[in-house]
């Protein structure tokens, strides 16, 4: 059975199909399809960028984690730009638009170049600044245009000739973005949050333990002198111990001239100047009593103390600097 041809030589069914295809491609894309394409092309990537930027913001500038997060965020931003601006010029599609069967074209249906696409994306700021009304404008615009489309003379239309593998590529891209976002979250938790948590816990510990340690090092009684000195030596680091021992020996050496008198210090005020998980520096204001009645003297002093945490988790004095030497003061304990 032979087919009946039209005057142009084409079968009537073929003509109807071609006209149907053109009619489909000239129809504005649905608002939901545009939103889905935008989510895949932009929002997923921006979510990953935000995750890495937050981690970089939380860590020390220019350390390895900062550089890693900044570099990863830059690579993702570049990928968004390539997919959004350059890929349509090469393949005719971005991943999101291929997945949803939509395309950005000029009013006459011709392709849009990367520079116009860039200007269009920048013009989306108008859609946002207008209380997001511009993004909703396609819902009632006859040709489905946003403010950006009106400005750069573009339209988003339906396309039924998207590559068959577009969905697979889009799924791979979304899964890769999810993996990167999870990686950023894991880095933020393990490197930043846990370190900050341990540093905060250490700061609370040293704020309580530090003054007591300094009181124990500087206080002694003639009746228990050697036990007090041994206790003081156990509260300092190996590096500071020789200096402390020398100070203790100078005290015992003076017994030939005068007997050793009790030395009792207590902290009146203190502040943690800096701290990490393993180190801390404190400013401590002290008051004390030296000797026994009726020759007892009240003294005050200001010291700056560096602490280090030992291998068994105990805080020890690594250095002690007297900022204001002991001087007579009024009142007792």
UniProtKB/TrEMBL annotation:
Keyword Membrane: yes
Bilayer topology: Multi-pass membrane protein
Localization of this protein: Cell membrane
Transmembrane segments: 35-57, 64-87, 122-140, 169-192
Signal peptide: none
InterPro entries xref list: Pra-immunoreactive, RDD
Domain RDD: 29-151
Record region (Disordered): 1-22
Main location class: membrane
Keywords tagged on the record: Cell membrane, Membrane, Transmembrane, Transmembrane helix
Protein known as: RDD family protein
Organismal lineage: Bacteria, Bacillati, Actinomycetota, Actinomycetes, Mycobacteriales
């Amino acid at each position: 059975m032979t087919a009946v041809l039209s005057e142009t030589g084409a079968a009537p069914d073929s003509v109807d199909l071609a006209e149907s295809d053109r009619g489909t491609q000239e129809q504005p894309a649905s608002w939901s399809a545009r939103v889905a394409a935008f989510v895949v092309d932009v929002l997923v990537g921006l979510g990953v960028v935000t995750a890495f930027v937050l981690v970089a913001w939380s860590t020390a500038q220019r350390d390895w984690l900062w550089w890693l997060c900044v570099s990863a965020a830059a690579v993702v931003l570049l990928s968004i730009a390539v997919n959004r601006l350059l890929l349509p010029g090469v393949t005719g599609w971005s991943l999101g638009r291929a997945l949803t069967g939509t395309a950005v074209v000029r009013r006459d249906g011709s392709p849009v170049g990367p520079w116009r696409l860039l200007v269009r994306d920048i013009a989306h700021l108008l859609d946002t600044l207008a209380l997001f009304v511009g993004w909703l404008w396609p819902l009632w615009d006859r040709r489905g245009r946003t403010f950006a489309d009106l400005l750069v003379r573009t339209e988003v239309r339906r396309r039924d000739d998207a590559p068959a593998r577009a969905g697979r590529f889009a799924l791979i891209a979304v899964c890769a973005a999810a993996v990167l976002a999870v990686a950023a979250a894991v880095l933020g938790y393990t490197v930043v949050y846990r370190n900050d948590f341990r540093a905060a816990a250490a700061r609370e510990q040293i704020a309580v333990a530090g003054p007591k340690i300094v009181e124990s090092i500087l206080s002694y009684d003639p009746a228990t002198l050697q036990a007090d000195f041994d206790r003081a030596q156990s509260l300092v680091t190996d590096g500071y111990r020789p200096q402390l021992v020398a100070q203790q020996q100078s005290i015992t050496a003076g017994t030939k001239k005068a007997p050793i008198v009790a030395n009792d210090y207590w902290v009146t005020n203190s502040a943690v100047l800096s701290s990490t998980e393993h180190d801390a520096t404190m400013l401590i204001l002290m008051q004390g009593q030296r000797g026994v009645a009726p020759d007892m003297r009240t003294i005050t002093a200001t010291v700056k103390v560096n602490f280090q945490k030992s291998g068994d988790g105990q805080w020890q004095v690594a250095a002690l600097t007297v900022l204001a030497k002991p001087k007579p003061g009024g009142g007792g304990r």
